[in-house]
Design brief:
The protein is α+β, with helices and mostly antiparallel strands and 88 residues long. It has a domain of 53 residues: Orthogonal Bundle (Helix Hairpins), CATH 1.10.287. The chain has two helices and two strands; from the N terminus they run ββαα. Strand 1 and strand 2 form a beta hairpin. Helix 1 packs antiparallel against helix 2. The longest helix has 32 residues. The mean pLDDT is 80.
């Protein structure tokens, strides 16, 4: 299920709902990767650049929140002690 991202306008302080967020971490990461490539290309007009930056910030927050949730779940599973990931 997709969620809505919120942003705060720096000048007015208004909170607005943006586009839907991807359904999962992997989809958000892929979209973020594609967006970064577009932003770094230098070929986007200024208005698209700004909206792209805002979308990227929302995707980054979404990904960080998902990772934090997984870390919290792992912490609970491991009785409050985070353990290093090891390859089998």
């Amino acid at each position: 299920m997709a969620t809505k991202a919120k942003t705060v306008d720096a000048l007015s302080g208004k909170v607005t709902l943006n586009q839907d967020m991807p359904a999962n971490y992997e989809a958000a990461l892929q979209e973020l990767d594609e967006l970064v490539s577009q932003l770094e290309s230098g070929q986007m007009p200024l208005d698209q650049l700004m909206s792209g930056y805002q979308r990227g910030a929302a995707l980054l927050t979404f990904c960080r929140d998902k990772l934090a949730a997984v870390e919290q779940q792992i912490s609970v599973i491991e009785n409050g002690q985070l353990k290093s990931w090891t390859k089998p």
